[in-house]
Amino acid sequence: MGILERAAAAAQSAELYEELSEGIGVTFRGGEIEKASSQTVLGRALRVIAGGRLGFASTAGEDEEKLVEAALTSANHGDPAPFGFPPLRTGAQVEVLDEEVLSISPDELISWGEEAVRAIREEFPDVIVDASLSRGTVEVRIENTSGGELRERRSYLSMGIETQWIREGDIYLLWVGRSVRRKADLSPEALTAEALRYLRWGERVVPAPQGTPLVLFSPKGAFVLLLPLIVGFSGLSVVMGTSPLRGRLGEQVFDPRFNLVDDGTLPYAPSSRSFDDEGVPTSCLPLVEEGVAKNFFYDLRAAALAEAESTGSGIRGGVLRGSGFRSPPSPSVRNIVVQPGEGSLEDLIAEMREGIVVADVLGLGQGNIQSGAFSNNVSAGFVVKDGKVVGRLKNTMIAGNVYEVLKDGLKAIGGEPEWVYGTAYVPPILVDGVSVVAR
Amino acid sequence: MEAHVREVLAKSPADYTEIRWEEVDRSRVAFQRDQLMALERSREAGGIVRVLVGGAWGVAVFTDPDDLPRKVEEATQLARAAARHVRDPIRLAEVPPVQDRFFPELKIDFREVPLEEKRRLAEGYNKIILNFAPEIVSTAVRYTDSLRRLIYANSQGTYIEQAIPDVTVLLLAVARKNGDIQQAFESIGEAGGYEIAQARGELAEAAAKRAVDLLSAKPVKGGRYTVVLDQELAGVFIHEAFGHICEADFLLKNEPMRKVMELGKRFGVEALNVVDDGYIPGARGNVPYDDEGVPRKKVYLIKEGVLSGLMHSRATAEKTGMEPTGNARAVSWEHEPIVRMRNTYIEPGEASFEELIAGVDHGIYAKGAFGGQTEFEQFTFSAGYAYEIVGGEIGDMLRDVVLTGNVFQTLRNIDLIADDFQLKGGAGGCGKYSQSPLPVTDGAPHVRIRDVIIGGR
Asked: What CATH code would you report for B2-216?
């Protein structure tokens, strides 16, 4: 008898989630390979509804009997389940598996890393280069007692480069990375070029302008603006009364040029999937259309509490995707996409004339992000004068509120979006109304 | 398991092999407003093999214990592939082999406490916050416990079994008024039994009161200030801003960084002493033996203002000609050990808290910590709440206080250290690379720092 059958024998309904991660990775330190690794990890989570009450338990490497017992114990002392498990139907298949990723060897990953190190060291011999590359698959299987079984194997391929440029009285640290599902979507050369561009821009330290200069967020930097929105559009924040967007659907909350969707169906996008971790089909969900707040995203629980429908946003592990099987699902974005405008980062730099570029920050998510506030140290930022980057800034903090900056402060949305943090597809964004304080 | 592990080790073809097998019992209760978001008691197990071949690491992570021999083979092949590209091979500092078993006594073993009782405890705290005032709109109350039982063995004759307990409570209140949302929290984290989580109602009340008070606090004006940090925030500062750069894996293949972190350099005033200690009774960061089987050492990172030690793994110790310190830690069986902090603190000074405040004409008294991050010399961390200091006296409450700076300048700008030391293990943990949250403890007395940048409008 399988786990689900055992659980079903003692409960009204049950759901089994299985996650098998298999992959390899390599790590470079100081320009040299240090480690090659592999993992084969099978994790399971069981939810049951017994006596009308919801129970949850998870496990890895343990026997099935204990998992069933643990979930039943949890239900025994749990609260009434506000939702039931939906019948599992195979819907539209989203493309998430690239067979070519599976055959990438450790030697190939090593050679990409070595080439990145070589290219950076050729131009900047004193720069220390660390890198990590990994590839693999996550296979998810969900079955529940409402009927049906869903199974999907998703590939991933990721590469990160970290550079450290250490000179007397100055340490310049930079991190660039990509996470994709398809081999053709990873260009180690483009990633290396991005690191080289920021190294060139950062060769010289110059004083930062203070007050409220124009601020151009690079795609990665722009995640500063997206993170409070991810919290604000979560159906759970809305239900709990902690979202400033509560009761404001249909309102003009942002600049009319701002459009935002949460799309789980983009072929081979890093967080795409045919169904969420509760087996609900994913979708393309508009969050903001022409500045108007349109939808919140829900998992089964938040939807039941809000008397809404799940949007296929029940993700285990949250925005930064920890080990999924250990946590119950909660509402999370799949791929959050800002509709691009026109112009490259360089075009916007020429257009802004004076101001700063924020390419990366420290302290992402710290502070009162529920209210939309951000306050960050700029870890990779540059000063723009006469439409050109003149050098790197240091010891500088930016602060503001997303709901103000993206309403009254939006100057331009660029073209050329990039994938950042494995979940967001963002173009450069130029704003004012951000406070800048520097030493 | 012991016989199986020893047998596999004996057959490994690698230059060096280590095996760690971990069984974890954990439970978790979480409330958000009136919703029970998690109620769980789970068990899991998993293992990791790490081998050294030709100066490169090979690592294999697995969940099926029958896979062990095959995983040693796999890790060896991966290490061989990497070793072909190695010019500067990794070597391990010698350590005497250890045979030991270490199981702490728990006053109230949380594994014996019914899940129902843990639920009642968390629900009680949640109600205290919810019922505190009409402005409270939401909460996040979380109780967790875990007992990691570890088997560690290596091919140099070390075999250790140890258990590491951890109990945390998070009490967070969210208050709202006219569209303004503020939050405040209190947390506890200790290596002990269930008693740690009990009778903490006053902390729940403190969190609720502060969230409400923050609604009428003034947003801080950005600028440069003299700042007095409370014990908790000073502890987070020393962990985030300074502790991380004393983790010697940063220096392993990094000559310029080794020069920056040369022992004997002056980093701060004479009264400044900073320690990382592997064992303080009850502290969350306790590591009797690290995940390379090395017994704990107490390390002075700064002694009388001078850089006097770093935290090491066996590889970084060999590279720098130092002794391993027992700082190689892995957050779970899914990860290999890397150099991490344990219980990190600033030793008490001689000044009184009143002296620290009295000397400030226009400054900020920053308390509690919402978190922080560091990238070598740059750090940032946010205070939970703060007060103005005007003319040597504590004034109005402030909010949105985020501090940033350059660690070397900031350490030099510490001008007074109080005598009121406190150790604090929170409910979160430390993150490095992809390994988070690792239980750690921070500690400090009140500390005064000149010329700190505060972000804000």
From this structure: 3.30.2290.10
